[in-house]
Design brief:
The structure holds two protein chains of two kinds. Chain A has helices at 7-31, 35-40, 55-62, 67-92, 98-104, 107-119, 127-151, 156-181, 191-194, 202-221, 223-231, 233-238, 243-265, 270-282, 288-312, 318-336, 342-373, 384-389, 391-395, 400-404, 411-423, 439-462, 470-478, 483-494, 514-521, 527-532, 539-548, and strands spanning 397-398, 427-429, 435-437. Chain A is mainly α. A three-stranded antiparallel beta sheet of chain A has the order 1-3-2. By secondary structure, chain B is an alpha/beta fold. A six-stranded mixed beta sheet of chain B has the order 5-6-7-3-8-9, sandwiched between helices. In chain B, strands 2-1-4 form a three-stranded antiparallel beta sheet.
């Protein structure tokens, strides 16, 4: 969590994604180099070129002029809609990877179904037959995961890794056997690995579309029950919701969506359609219903554009196209998403940092002036409110060099902070570069110093923090103190006889630690400070020198 | 104070909000609760107190049939839980859910009404109205549309409380509602519980802070795998009973459990 806050990790993530997209693209192109595909496209076996389609080809697809294209695109769009919808639930139920294990486990079923159907004398390539076989081994795979988890002490991720690889490996071997046995007849079976809409019949597309639409409807009907299941299983159980059955429904819908997605998206990439739309949607909203709607939309658009692209480039696997499109949408969501996107979070962070900088500046000016006038330090002196109200605080000019010594900020950064504060009307910059608080700035500065010191006093008296350390500790907290907490602090400390207004600095040490000062402002402070620098206990000397100056 | 072995007279059980007889619960054959028998009094604030691993959460989960029981019988207002589910409100532990979930406070409270709304039917305006009122009762009216991770720990706890309140149940089971909340929230929650009690509700609270037991509760159950003692706070919450609950008097029971767990591991 903490790591993700840093822009560098986001950049790294984005870079990885772009790299992944490229890989999928390249892999997709390479996979298409298989002989069967080349033959069916009427080219030589070694021809691996991807030709840029003619304008006519583009036009036919964009206007959906071919009946087959229309049906295929409609079917896969419904599939994407269903995958996005159910994906939101599995993502929130933290079962997203179940779909991956499931889809990999379907491969042996496809090969076996082909073998059995051919052996019985039917066409082994009928989609319903193959999908039925896929469903059987897919469910078997999921059962095996549960079995491994319950019988051994292995965790679910290990069980999933085992099942996923073993079933897939078995499937690949079976596929090789099938192709050996039935020369050429088994062509197209490997299309299930990467997805291939080109060979999809209209009847297949109708089947996919109907099952996808049905899955989406079931999910939406059970929307609130599934939402409660994903959020709080225990509470759902206490209300009498059949938790086990709901989980089974959820997994059954995942099975249906995965199975019908095999032909268009392929079993390796099917997980993308279950995870990416939902993950992308999370960046846009904090509401479950909207998230599901956005995820369904992202899934549908990915499939629509992906399968259309694959119709234009018949040699590119549709699965890869669909994943690429959804990844692009995800990347965009991750960056510009208005709820959790990278940009909005960077912006919020910057605003916060600027506010903290400004607060530090105002406090530093106040403290320099305070040290100069010596006024509110003693019990007899004027309170901060009086200081703020009087022209005294606003009248005082503070040299940049004095401010530089207050904190460990570099000269250029300090000047940048001052420029910004001047633009916003907190301070004015005098001819010689000296800084002066505006009336508004003076009021705010007094309040900030008061908050800071209240918190310091609280730390010393109530939290047993050593007085030498409170300045640093208070620094970290005071920027998040809200009005209610300040009020609470005030009543808490007032009871113990504190004067209102800006109290005196409760610790002996100077606001900036001596060590810090020696590092950044060794030249501006007197020699006395530098020699005693290094320990906070001796910092009292430096504050004395300061006031003397 | 009634002792563990005392059997509950059959006549009393009917109007008791919750009666438990000889309840034994085991996780993977490792017993967590042994022969628990308590007859909870009506209309009181009841504290369930005991060390970590004493089976406090297990007890209320067993009542709601969330976990299987090895033996024993549980009656909620004289009937099995499933018949009287609507009369029971539940506040789970705050850590049991993912607070990053895409819902706001009002959504969470509305979940308390799903049972009344019924399968497949949408949440309607009157339900949201009810949920908003419950949020107002716990002092979170202006945070209704805030995403739940943006709430403080105390506010999250109060959201859960509101979700239980919205059901208007007669018996409430609360799993550590005071865990990791600030003093102000603790005060707010105890005031709500007092008010519930004044309206005749029975509230059973799993509690950790022994300092406040005497202030907060009327009735106390001291639990450490078995019921050490139960009865009115004044007579039951004694040094001697606490010693029995938290002290080393149960070593044999623990050893037996530990032995069972080890054997389980090698199987």
């Amino acid at each position: 969590m903490n790591g993700c806050r840093r822009p560098s990790s986001w950049l790294l993530l984005a870079a990885c994604l772009v790299f992944g997209i490229l890989l999928v693209g390249i892999g997709g192109c390479a996979a298409e180099g298989d002989p069967e595909g080349a033959v069916s496209a009427g080219r030589s076996l070694t021809d691996r070129r991807i030709e840029w389609p003619s304008w006519e080809a583009w036009r036919r697809v964009i206007l959906m002029q071919d009946y087959n294209t229309r049906v295929v695109v409609t079917g896969t769009t419904l599939l994407g809609l269903a995958a996005g919808t159910i994906g939101s639930f599995t993502l929130l139920r933290k079962r997203a990877l179940m779909g991956d294990a499931l889809s990999h486990a379907t491969l042996p079923g496809i090969a076996l179904a082909f073998l059995i159907a051919s052996g019985l004398g039917y066409s082994g390539k009928a989609l319903p037959v193959l999908l039925a076989g896929a469903a059987v081994t897919g469910i078997l795979g999921m059962g095996t995961i549960l079995l491994i988890r319950n019988l051994t002490r292995l965790k679910e991720d290990a069980a999933m890794g085992i099942v996923l690889s073993v079933f897939f490996g078995g499937g690949v071997s079976l596929l090789a056997v099938v192709q050996q046995m039935s020369e050429g007849h088994a062509a197209g079976l490997e299309g299930f690995i990467y997805g291939k809409t080109a060979s999809m019949l209209a009847s297949d597309a109708w089947l996919i579309g109907a099952a996808g639409g049905g899955s989406a409807i079931v999910t939406l009907l059970l929307f609130k029950e599934l939402k409660l299941l994903c959020f709080d299983e225990g509470f759902a159980g206490s209300r009498g919701l059949p938790v086990v059955w709901l989980d089974l429904v959820l997994m059954a819908v995942v099975v249906v969506v995965t199975i019908i997605g095999l032909q268009a998206v392929g079993l390796i990439l099917m997980i993308a359609l279950l995870v990416i739309p939902a993950a992308a949607a999370r960046f846009w909203t904090e509401r479950m219903a909207r998230m599901t709607a956005v995820a369904a939309g992202v899934g549908a658009v990915s499939c629509l554009v992906g399968s259309a692209l694959s119709a234009v480039f018949p040699r590119l696997p549709s699965g890869a196209m669909i994943v690429l499109v959804s990844a692009l949408i995800f990347l965009t969501s991750m960056i510009v998403g208005p709820r959790r996107g990278v940009l909005i979070r960077a912006l919020r962070r910057r605003t916060l940092h600027r506010r903290i900088d400004r607060q530090h500046l105002l406090r530093a000016i106040y403290e320099v002036l305070e040290a100069r006038h010596e006024s509110p330090a003693g019990a007899t002196a004027a309170t901060g409110a009086e200081l703020a109200a009087g022209a005294e605080l606003a009248a005082g000019e503070v040299a940049v060099a004095d401010l530089l010594g207050r904190r460990s900020w570099s000269g250029s950064r300090l000047r940048r902070i001052i420029r910004r504060a001047a633009r916003q009307g907190w301070v004015t910059v005098e001819a010689g570069g000296a800084v002066r608080l505006t009336t508004r700035g003076a009021e705010r500065a007094a309040r900030l110093v008061r908050d800071h010191r209240l918190w310091e006093m609280y730390l010393i008296t109530h939290a047993d923090v050593a007085p030498g350390r409170v300045d640093r500790d208070a620094d970290a907290i005071e920027h998040v103190l809200d009005a209610a907490m300040i009020a609470e602090l005030q009543t808490l400390l007032d009871v113990e006889g504190m004067p209102s207004g800006v109290p005196a600095c409760p610790h002996e040490a100077a606001p900036a630690s001596a060590a810090e000062r020696a590092l950044t402002a060794g030249t501006t402070t007197t020699a006395g400070t530098t020699t005693t620098a290094g320990t906070t206990t001796t910092a009292g000397t430096s504050s004395a020198t300061d006031r003397g100056a | 104070m009634s002792s563990v072995a005392a059997t509950v007279p059959a006549g009393r059980a009917v109007d008791s909000p919750l009666s438990i007889y000889d309840l034994t619960v085991a996780y993977h054959r490792k017993p967590v609760l042994w022969d628990v028998s308590v007859d909870f009094p009506k209309g009181q604030l009841i504290g369930v107190v005991g060390p970590n691993g004493a089976g406090k959460s297990t007890l209320i989960k067993a009542v709601m049939e969330l976990i299987p029981t090895a033996s024993g019988e549980i009656r909620v207002f004289g009937k099995p839980y499933r018949k009287n589910r609507r009369r029971v409100g539940y506040v789970p532990q705050r850590e049991s859910v993912d607070w990053d979930f895409p819902v706001d406070a009002l959504d969470v409270v509305t979940m308390g009404l799903y049972g009344q709304i019924g399968w497949c039917l949408p949440v309607r305006r009157k339900h949201r109205q009810q949920a908003a009122e419950a949020l107002e009762r716990v002092g979170l009216a202006d945070l209704a549309h805030r995403q739940i991770s943006q709430l403080s720990g105390g506010q999250q706890q109060r959201t859960f409380l509101a979700r239980a309140l919205v059901q208007d149940a007669d018996l409430y089971l609360m799993d550590e509602p005071f865990a990791a909340v600030d003093a102000a929230t603790e005060q707010a929650i105890i005031e709500i519980l007092q008010e519930m009690k004044n309206r005749g509700k029975t509230v059973l609270v799993i509690h950790h802070d022994l300092q406040t037991v005497a202030d907060y509760f009327d009735y106390v159950v001291l639990l450490n795998m078995r019921v050490v003692a139960h009865g009115p706070v004044a007579t039951t919450f004694t040094q001697e009973n606490l010693q029995k609950t938290y002290g080393g008097r149960l070593t044999l029971l623990e050893e037996a459990t530990e032995a069972m767990r080890r054997r389980e591991k090698t199987l």
